[in-house]
Design a protein that fits this description.
about 0% strand; DNA binding; mainly alpha; DNA-binding; 434 Repressor (Amino-terminal Domain)
Length: about 80
């Protein structure tokens, strides 16, 4: 299943146990403004994506290619 960049940002943030409030403060923006990014309600600029990747401590490539299923794979 493919996830959008917006969903990947949210999932990475949650896996790192970071709050929306924390990430928004690091980005110097409102919590509601950051929430709009995670929901995909606003277009994400390259510069904002770079800032988000720094706060999450991951590469931009990681955000694009992130697949949560790698953490929850079944063994048979």
């Amino acid at each position: 299943m493919k996830y959008s960049v917006y969903e990947n940002i949210r999932k990475i943030r949650e896996l790192k146990n970071l709050t929306r409030e924390y990430v928004a403060a690091e980005l110097k923006m409102s919590t509601s403004g950051y929430g709009k990014i995670e929901r995909g309600d606003v277009d994400l600029t390259v510069s904002k994506l770079i800032e988000i990747s720094k706060v999450l401590e991951v590469s931009i490539e990681f955000i694009f290619k992130f697949d949560v299923s790698i953490f929850f794979s079944e063994t048979r």
